[in-house]
């Protein structure tokens, strides 16, 4: 009985020691678990904060992207408007240049025609004058009247020739001005 009692007491002491050991382990595990919970709580708060900041950053980026897109679209529209205006101006100037070129060609043709007519008229007048010189002395008075009329006509032709020549010079100056304007337009980067 004593032996059994001692044996049972030994088992109780061993059980108490084991229970004490398990209790200490449980307390250590509880402390570790508490640390883990606190760490997890901090991580969750940090994650929540990061998510909030990420959401705000994403919203800010979307707003910035939208504003940048609007600014780009506005700049693109302005550029297209400027290009359209320059293109229209270029077409107008090109049409004016073509008109002036055609006008210059017409004036050159008119000038050449008047020049030829003037030369033919001078030749004709010279022939008539020579012929009239050879006619009878009785027709001297009539010849003088005719020569006077022919000289007046020659003056008018010369005057017309001078006017056409002046118009030609003016048209050439205007064409040079349009050429310079065309070169200036071609140097503009938007038009190119």
TrEMBL record:
<feature type="coiled-coil region">
    <location>
        <begin position="5"/>
        <end position="60"/>
    </location>
</feature>
<dbReference type="GO" id="GO:0000139">
    <property type="term" value="C:Golgi membrane"/>
</dbReference>
<dbReference type="InterPro" id="IPR042336">
    <property type="entry name" value="GOLIM4"/>
</dbReference>
<feature type="coiled-coil region">
    <location>
        <begin position="90"/>
        <end position="135"/>
    </location>
</feature>
<keyword id="KW-0175">Coiled coil</keyword>
<protein>
    <submittedName>
        <fullName>GOLI4 protein</fullName>
    </submittedName>
</protein>
